Structures are given as structure tokens and as C-alpha cells.
Amino acid sequence: MVQLHIKRGNESQFLLDTTVHVAVEDLTKLVSAIYNGRLKVDRLCTEMGELAEHGIFLPINMQGLTDEQIEELKLKDEWAEKCVPSGGCEFKKDEIGRRNGHAPNQAMKEVLKKTIEEAKALISKKQVQANVCVTMEMVKDALDQLRGAVMIVYPMGLPPHDPIQQEFEGKEDLSGLQAGKMVTEESEAQLWWAGKELQRGKKLSDYVGKNEKTKIVVKIQKQGQGAPAREPIINEDEQKQMTMYYYRRQEELKKLNENDDDSHLDSDWSDRHALKRQFQGVKDIRWGPRK
Q1: What is the spatial distance between Cα 150 and Cα 37, in angstroms, rounded to a whole number?
Q2: Is 250 in contact with 37 (CB distance < 8 Å)?
Q3: Which of 136, 162, 139 lies closest to 150, judged by CA?
Q4: pLDDT at 220 over 80
Q5: Are 145 and 115 in contact (CB under 8 A)?
Q6: I need a labelling partner for 221 at 20 to 30 A (CA). Which of 30, 237, 251, 290 fits?
Q7: What is the pLDDT of residues 40-99, one digit of tens each?
Q8: Using CA atoms, how far apart are residues 274 and 268, in angstroms rounded to an integer?
């Protein structure tokens, strides 16, 4: 199997096992699906963290308003009574004004937080360091875990306007958000290797040969962004080691310079011609009158 190290820019994303005979078209679809799926899991984990702390999402027309403004406008959250977490709730006001403040109790909060940690670990970028390849099944498993945790805490479901519910239903609206800019649609995705775009319609073997034990760095980006920067000759760890080596070497040279004392060269024992003069009988000759 060929191992692909998928990056976005210079940032590692995940490892993927494939074969040199795979069509670039299919490979692009798979890479973009896993890449976007990981982003989806990350968005869900962020929102579920807020759900655990501050309860369900307020209706759009009530967000950001003070209690006085809500009362003055005679607005009411109809979903507050329908979506009560299992075991009751604890009030914790959302200072941003996005959620209603009726948070799950401590036990249910722990269910959400533990599941968030497990889902994050499943598709984490640290899997690259552990040499663990990520599959689409792992992404789906992480999504299923998150969905299951929400169903445990909110058996009746969440309001249709809650971002978590929209993510589960595939109806999320990311327009105008930074999260939307990070998504790379399959139709816009491009894969690059060694400064070359992997053209759809070809196979991976047309670029990397037929060696199934190859490991390459592939970068994903949107169309129209041009060729991504090439990989540096040395990686970050090697650069740190080299910097540390030259720093230690510089410190050693400083110490040698400080200890560079040549006064010993005037001593008798350091005179390499002393033995010769002794045999010739001219060892203690001095110029000038004797005292």
C-alpha cells in the first residue's frame, strides 16, 4: 500500500493508505471527503462543548439580546420547554447570548465532554505522529459517537435551528464564517505532489511509479490557488536539532577562546630546542655582563 501524508499548506492533516493503481479522480474524492469530515467533527465538538456548558441554541431573533429586551419585545423560546436535558438542567448564563443557559446536569455534561474527547482523538492530527492512517469509516464512527451522546442527553432531539442539529442533518450554513473558508468541496479540490498537480483522468502510478511501498506528501487545496509551496529540504525536527547543535558548538568555541592563554609558551618545559642546546653546551648562555 502507498501511504499518503495529506497536508494543507505546511500543516499535517492525516495519513491515508491507498494503492498506486487508484484513479486520481477517486483519490481526490476520498481525500476531500475525509478532510471535510474531520472539519465537521471539529465543528461539532466545538458546538457540543458549548451545549454542555450553556444548553440549547436560542432562536435567531433572540440571540444577543438582554433579558429586558426580550421581555420588552415579548419574545419566547418555544423550544426551551421541549428540549430539556435528561436528569434536569442547571442554569449557567451564556454571556455571548447564543444559548439559553439551561445546561445539562454534571453527569450528562460528563457524557458529552468524554465523547467529545474520544471523537477528537479518533481523527486527531496526532495520528500522523503515531503513524495511524485515518479512514472514512473512522470519521463516520466519530460522527456516530457524537450523535449518540446528544441523543442520550437530549432524547427528544435539538431545535432545528441549533448548529449541532443542522450538522447532523447536513444542513449547516457556513457562508460568511471562517469555518466555511476551510472547507474544500470535492468539485474544487486539487491534489499536488512534488510541485505537480495530480490530474483527474490519470492514475497515481502515472506520477509515483508502481512501487506499492512508497510514502509521499500530498497537499490538498482549492482550484485557482496555484501550486502550493514545496516541502522544505529538512523537516522541523531536523532544523531544531541543527540549531541546537550549532548553538552548543558556538558556546564551546566561546569557552575555548576565553581559555586561550599562551603564557605557557615562555616556560622552559615548552621549549622544543632545549635538549639540543643542552647537548651542545649552550644551554645557559646569556648575553651581557655577568653579575
Answers
A1: 18
A2: no
A3: 162
A4: yes
A5: yes
A6: 237
A7: 999 999 999 999 999 999 998 998 888 889 888 989 888 988 999 999 999 999 998 999
A8: 7
The values of phi and psi at residue 133, to 5°, are -80, 140
Strand runs (DSSP E) across 107-239, as ranges? 189-193, 196-197, 215-222
Which own/partner contact pairs does 223-231 have at CB distance under 8 Å and 24+ positions apart? 223/188, 223/189, 223/190, 225/190, 227/192, 227/195, 227/197, 228/9, 228/192, 229/9, 229/10, 230/194, 230/195
| The Cα angle at residue 43 between residues 219 and 128, in degrees rounded to 5 | 40
Amino acid at 62: M
H helix or E strand, kind and range, residue 103:
strand 102-104
| pTM beyond 0.85, yes or no | no
Query: 203 and 20 in contact (C-beta within 8 Å)?
Result: yes
> What is residue 141's three-state secondary structure?
helix
> What secondary structure does DSSP assign to 33-90, as a single string?
HHHHHHHHHHHHHHHHHHHHHH-SBPPGGGTT--HHHHHHTT---THHHH-PPTT-EE
The 8-class DSSP code of residue 97 comes to S
Output b/e per residue, 31-49; b: 16+ Cβ within 10 A: bbebbbbbbbbbbbbebbe
**Secondary structure (3-state) at 14:** strand
Whose cell is 498506486? That residue is: 20
Residue entry with cell 442539529: 165
